[in-house]
Design goal:
Layout (H helix, E strand, L loop, with lengths): L1 H9 L12 E3 L1 H7 L2 E6 L9 H9 L4 H6 L1 E4 L3 H13 L3 E5 L5 H9 L3 E4 L4 H15 L2 E2 L6 H17 L6 E5 L4 H13 L4 E7 L4 H8 L24 H10 L2 E5 L1 H15 L9 H10 L7 E6 L9 H11 L3 E8 L5 H9 L4 E10 L2 E9 L3 H13 L3 E4 L4 H5 L16 E8 L4 H9 L5 E7 L5 E8 L6 H11 L2 E4 L4 H6 L2
Parallel strand pairs: 2-10, 3-4, 3-6, 4-5, 7-8, 7-10, 8-9
Antiparallel strand pairs: 1-2, 11-13, 11-14, 12-13, 15-17, 15-18, 16-17
Helix pairs in contact: 1-8, 1-9, 3-5, 3-8, 5-6, 8-9, 9-11, 12-13, 12-14
């Protein structure tokens, strides 16, 4: 099987449009991790993503009749740009079906290449289903983003370049995984020539389709409404059939990372390259850091920087979460005595640490509540800070891992409900697009009065809302059923300590 793919990779036509990208040493990451780290800079392609390779290799091999009919695909954006540029270079028409929450920078780039954009659904799978319908109805040629031999071969040229460019022994290559085309192509070429080099896939925790398939021994489909779209370029419900045939034999491991770790990795890439990658683009770096933290067997590693198509407004959210992901920020809540000098004494107890955020609110005659962000060096350092404050008789809550606290409460410190008012608290996520908040509120209806509401646009693909309802515990079963029927993901936050401390 591998020999067939290697031959296809060697004969790929990608260099008619794509560049051989550099393999650059990441000096800062290498020093910090104690490993020779090289970054494969696919963010430097003409479409700022590796996807051009597979798209052009596929389209360039179509017959004259197929080229005349025109091509179509479904894509979150990077494959779309690859198809659009390939079609433009070959002088054919292209139609791209995108989810309505696709970052505008990707939409605009596709249109600039002359392709027609059709919006459908909120996820890749919804867009893909609509593209299939259009393919049949309009007699177009579908260009799969990953589940195609020629697409896989085009992406596999990255593996060929890494082998040719790397100066010495290579222990591991870390590859972002969505549908699996990239990792399949790299694994096919590298494992054929260097079977001892580890191929390690990296997935976002909220879209881990390859991880699920490896665990089940077969392809499985993740529920579309559970997919996390922060790393939209890899938000795929099911790994491709052709990629999985390769991956199940030649991918050594799969690492899962969370949003904070991805944000930290974007910062890492920036510090070494002065370039800003998209969340999916930095995924491999995040996974590499997590993997290397648990092993000393890797001396040299390559991570794929797969793309740089990120909306500027998303940088606010990325910057906010990067320090937490790097374990350089602790988010703490404390109660202090409400008397002259107590505020000053607490600040002195913190020492000369960098304060990233400070919120203070008078609670009652018995005390005041403080929400503080502190610069720390590691998780161990964070734990030491908490222990120090507790030893000085402060009541401390570590909220560094508390999503409701980080997303909402930090912006709401000081607001409390009147005494004696019953309230149930929920946290929601819904696909972010124009009109989404109005649609969400309309879905809630008027059955229960809203007693608390916080929404903040984080520049991400998901809208995040904290809602309090004027309702008692006896109402909760009926309210839960009502909310499930609406169809948005939600979490009950009634017992969240951040809520109890600052808002209840």
């Amino acid at each position: 099987m591998l020999e067939t793919y290697v031959k296809k990779i060697l004969s790929s036509r990608v260099y008619e449009v794509a560049d051989e990208t550099p393999l650059t040493r990441a000096a800062t990451l290498s020093q910090r991790l104690g490993v020779d780290v090289r970054l494969k800079r696919e963010d430097l392609q003409p479409v700022f993503s590796f996807k051009l390779r597979g798209a052009y290799n596929k389209i360039s091999q179509l017959s004259a009749d197929e080229l005349g009919r025109g091509v179509i695909t479904a894509s979150a954006g990077n494959h779309a740009q690859g198809v659009a540029m390939a079609a433009q270079c070959l002088g054919i028409k292209a139609t791209i079906v995108m989810g309505r929450n696709t970052p505008s920078i990707k939409v605009n780039a596709v249109r600039a290449r002359g392709a027609k954009v059709v919006f459908h659904g909120d996820s890749y799978d919804e867009a893909s289903a609509h593209a299939a319908e259009m393919t049949a109805a309009e007699n177009l040629v579908y260009v799969a983003p990953y589940d195609d031999v020629d697409v896989i071969a085009g992406q596999g040229t990255i593996g060929m370049e890494i082998v040719n460019q790397h100066p010495g022994r290579l222990d591991a290559i870390f590859v972002p995984v969505g549908g699996g085309g990239l990792i399949a192509g790299i694994a096919a070429y590298v494992k054929y020539l260097h079977p001892k080099t580890k191929i390690i896939g990296v997935e976002a925790e909220g879209s881990a389709c390859l991880f699920a398939a490896r665990r089940a021994g077969k392809r499985v489909r993740l529920a579309a409404d559970t997919l996390d779209l922060f790393a939209d370029g890899v938000s795929v419900a099911q790994v491709g059939a052709a990629p999985f045939r390769i991956a199940k034999h030649y991918v050594d491991d799969v690492v899962l990372v969370n949003t904070d770790e991805i944000c930290a990795a974007i910062k890492d890439v920036f510090e070494d390259t002065r370039c800003v990658s998209e969340p999916a683009g930095a995924l491999a770096i995040a996974g590499m850091k997590r993997y290397l933290a648990r092993t000393t067997e890797i001396a040299s590693a390559v991570a794929i920087v797969s793309g740089a198509n990120v909306n500027f407004d998303r940088l606010r959210h990325i910057s906010e979460r990067a320090e937490v992901g790097e374990e350089r920020e602790a988010i703490l809540a404390a109660k202090i005595d409400e008397r002259p000098g107590s505020f000053l004494r607490f600040c002195k107890a913190l020492g000369r640490r960098a304060i990233t955020e400070f919120n203070y609110r008078f609670a009652d005659a018995g005390g005041a509540h403080i929400y503080v962000g502190l610069g720390v060096e590691s998780q161990a350092d964070r734990e030491a800070v908490v222990a120090t404050l507790q030893n000085k008789n402060y009541s401390i809550l570590d909220m560094t891992e508390n999503e409701a606290a980080k997303l909402h409460v930090r912006h709401m410190v000081g607001g409390r409900s009147p005494q004696g008012v019953d309230e149930l608290l929920y946290r929601f996520e819904f696909p972010e697009r124009p009109g989404a908040l109005l649609q969400f509120l309309t879905g809630l209806g008027q059955r229960w009065n809203i007693s608390l509401f916080h929404y903040r646009n984080h520049g991400s693909a998901w809208g995040r809302v904290l809602v309090g309802f004027a309702a008692s515990k006896k109402d909760q079963p009926a309210l839960d059923k009502y909310l499930k029927d609406i169809g948005y993901r939600f979490w009950v936050e009634q017992d969240n300590p951040a809520y109890k401390m600052f808002l209840q």
